Amino acid sequence: MKQNLPTTPGPIGVFDSGYGGLTILSKIREALPQYDYIYLGDNARAPYGTRSFEIVYLFTLQAVTKLFEMGCHLVILACNTASAKALRSIQMNDLPTLDPTRRVLGVIRPTVECIGNITRNGHVGILATAGTIKSESYPLEIRKLYPDISVSGVACPLWVSLVENNEATGPGADYFVRKYIDQLLTLDPLTDTVILGCTHYPLLLPKIQQYMPAHIRTVAQGGLVAESLKDYLHRHPEMDARCTRQGTCRYYTTEATEKFSESASTFLNQKIDVQHITLE
Ligand code: DGL
């Protein structure tokens, strides 16, 4: 076990490469307001979506270790790219030596679990970062649970930038929103359900809904992840007992704090206090 990890109960850690995980955090806090949370955004090294497997794994492991050192017993990887590229290795290789009683959960599995009840014809599309699409995590996870569902995926490399640069609702976004939706529907014209497999995409929903044919169901993951966490804590009273409950949330970023506070307000619709942190 790693030396000096606090053993007393602590907050739930929520990690993302940057701001996007705030869309997941806000749904988690809506569903489970009584718990304490630490949000950690690795903004200085975002985006992760274009980075290699090795780098995403290394950065994610550093963040998870930091959150454990800060007292978290349970960490949610609120980042699809980190969930796709790092979660399995951390669970299998690192947790046993860091501390086998701590847990790290991702966002892909909870999203995928619900898909069988949402699609009517078994044709599911994934819109995500290049890294998540390349990892094949969504099709692999879906096939494990629902072998008959056919899955197609398209990387949307410009969408994160549109959101990060506050252009999600601007006229310039239309071209790229339409482009990737059209690509997906060309791959499989029978698609009836589309998963937004990236934390940033819920902020593009007004434009996505404009260009997505009305019969297609668009699935954002925040609510699904929140419900799954609620269920997890219910099924694991030993972990639930190690999560403190005062309804607080502390925010940390690896970038400049002013920049984080300003951009975070786009995601949360409120001003927040944030502290700087270094990951290594
Ligand atoms: N948080 C990432 C995800 O959900 C998107 C941003 C990034 O590429 O770092 O995949």
Radius of gyration (Å): 18 Å
Topology as a string of helices (H) and strands (E): EHEHEHHEHEHHEHHEHEHHEHE
Structural class of the helix and strand makeup? alpha/beta
CATH architecture of the largest domain: 3-Layer(aba) Sandwich
CATH class of the largest domain: Alpha Beta
Estimate percent helicity. 40-55%
Number of helices: 13
Strand order of the largest sheet: 4-3-1-2-9-10
The end-to-end span amounts to: 19 Å
The gross shape turns out to be: globular
Count of DSSP strands: 10
CATH fold field value of the largest domain? Rossmann fold
* Ligand types: D-glutamic acid
Strand content: 15-25%
Overall average residue pLDDT: 95
Low-confidence runs? none
- Provide the number of structural domains: 2
Largest sheet: 6 strands, parallel
Give the structure's gist in a few sentences.
The chain is of the alpha/beta class and 280 residues long. 46% of the residues lie in helices and 16% in strands.
